[in-house]
Write a structure and sequence with these properties.
Elements: H1 6-57, E1 74-79, E2 85-90, E3 100-105, E4 111-116, E5 124-129, E6 143-148, E7 170-174, E8 178-182
Antiparallel strand pairs: 1-2, 2-3, 3-4, 4-5, 5-6, 6-8, 7-8
């Protein structure tokens, strides 16, 4: 009687398990890239709305309500680490799983961002510096992937595990608030 030995069966099971885990990781990466693409599209829309506002008023908007773009979700007024105020919406509708926030930082260093507020990558997101009056920390009007270093939505996973591993970003530098990565989207 011919058959398989226990060792042969264990090797086959091990190979199938390895292939399944690799497939699952690639699937999760593809799902996250889809979510990120939606957030990046929203960030681009915010940028265009800010450019229209700048052309019409000679300055960037002071609140999200001032822009020609609407959001549904829980509105909050927040304070950044540098004590400048921002306007944000949490659980933004229209983005898959509604687990993103949209923020506009005003003041002398206006910026816009879309960030994860829940899920495995809470504290990561995308950012664009519109203007900087106290020195440039990131190239103006270029999109960056960010991982927050502190605050309510601090990124708690290993450095680079979102922006490098998931978004194929390249480390650019960090501020007291976040690590920034160059991305090609």
């Amino acid at each position: 009687m011919k058959g398989f030995t226990l060792i042969e069966l264990l090797v086959v099971v091990l190979i199938v398990a390895i292939l399944a885990s690799v497939g699952l990781m690639e699937y999760q990466k593809a799902v996250e890239k889809t979510r990120a693409a939606e957030a990046i599209t929203l960030l681009r829309s915010l940028y265009q709305a800010e450019q229209h506002f700048l052309a019409a008023h000679g300055r960037y908007a002071g609140s999200l309500e001032s822009l020609s773009i609407s959001f549904k979700g829980k509105k909050v007024v927040c304070t950044q680490n540098n004590k400048s105020s921002c306007w944000g919406y949490y659980n933004t509708e229209g983005i898959q799983n509604k687990d993103w926030s949209v923020e506009l930082e005003k003041g002398k260093n206006p910026s816009i961002s879309v960030g994860r507020i829940s899920g495995p990558y809470a504290g990561a997101g995308f950012f664009m510096q519109l203007e900087r009056k106290d020195g440039i920390q990131y190239p103006l009007e270029q999109m960056a992937c960010i991982e927050n270093r502190n605050g309510r939505f601090k990124y708690k996973k290993k450095e680079g595990s979102y922006c490098v591993d998931m978004m194929d970003g390249v480390y650019h530098g960090q501020s007291s608030a976040s690590r920034k990565y160059d991305i090609a989207f």
